[in-house]
Amino acid sequence: MDTAVDPMNSESSFPGSPQEFLASWSASRGNLRRFLEDRALPPIDEQSQRAAGEASAAAAVEETFGIELDAFSSGVDSVSGSIQAAGGIHISIPDPDIPQDIGAAAFFDVDNTLIQGSSMVVFALGLARKRYFRFSEVVPIAWKQLKFRFTGSENAGDVAIGRNQALEFIKGKDVADLVELCEEIVDSSMIEKAWPGTRELAQLHLAAGHQVWLVSATPVQLAQILARRFGFTGALGTVAEVEDGKFTGRLVGDILHGPGKKHAVAALAAIEQLDLARCTAYSDSINDIPMLSMVGTAVAINPDKKLSQEAARRGWQVRDYRSLRRAVRAFGLPALATAAFSLGSWRMFHRGQPEQPDQRPS
């Protein structure tokens, strides 16, 4: 009687932990058959082989990240697409004089966490100025971003519509042209919008030997240029499929929004052997709770109202670099209102006074 092989308990065929299993499985880009063959499982028929591999991967994903295999596979696709776009997994080489703390990393959202305001609006307006597309086509993107900033939330319909519009805009366009425009827009309009406090946090992580990653719904090319300019390890972004140097109009993996960020970070952690309990995530938005809640340390940067409340409930750190908000917290709204009223009254009073003659001796 044949004995069934349990892949998770086969010391000769599989790594000894779910994390090691996922690192190898992720590196195979989800090709379960190739992965199993490389691991020299006893010969079994293709259907059984696939079922065994998927069962093992699903169990490891659930135990390690608490997500389903399909979600993890989508994250692998997003990470793989980001690696392909960058030409390698790491964008910047760490300082050789700094000992690397293997397994530790920091994940930063972009909009209003690293960059003031919406990178997509700045990006879209920059492309329109370069006549990459018309200003009228930017309006829906800008409206959705303004709606998000005022309401503090995005619904799935807005995200899906925005994704489809963006993919349609770039369909058939040359990737090299877009990258060149991205570099111009980043250098002329985005670097100066970076929050100094957030940049300082990122530099502290790098100085401690941690990896530093941007994780953003913004196009991966834009996110990776930002990461390169700031000397970060790498960037995960929304990946548009490329064939023969042109965009096809199709998406690779998830749009990195909400749960999509968690799926991509899970895949990256598996590939890079990161210990998420020793990692830190930073964001301004309640939509990033899935990513924030999967790491050992979560920090709310310039948080929206809902994230601020959630951070208080969970005991997460909060850092607010917005001057008005910081002033309100430091002095209180009544004191600021009184000061503003007094200043305004003083200006009105002096504006209404007749100009005094020059009393200086001639």
TrEMBL record:
Keywords: Hydrolase, Magnesium, Metal-binding
Region Disordered, residue ranges: 1-21
Pfam families, per database record: HAD
Any one GO MF annotation of this record: hydrolase activity
Keyword field contains Transmembrane: no
InterPro entries the UniProt entry points to: HAD-like_SerB, HAD-like_sf, HAD_hydro_SerB1, HAD_sf
Family per record: Belongs to the HAD-like hydrolase superfamily. SerB family.
Name recorded for this polypeptide: HAD-IB family hydrolase
Source species: Corynebacterium alimapuense
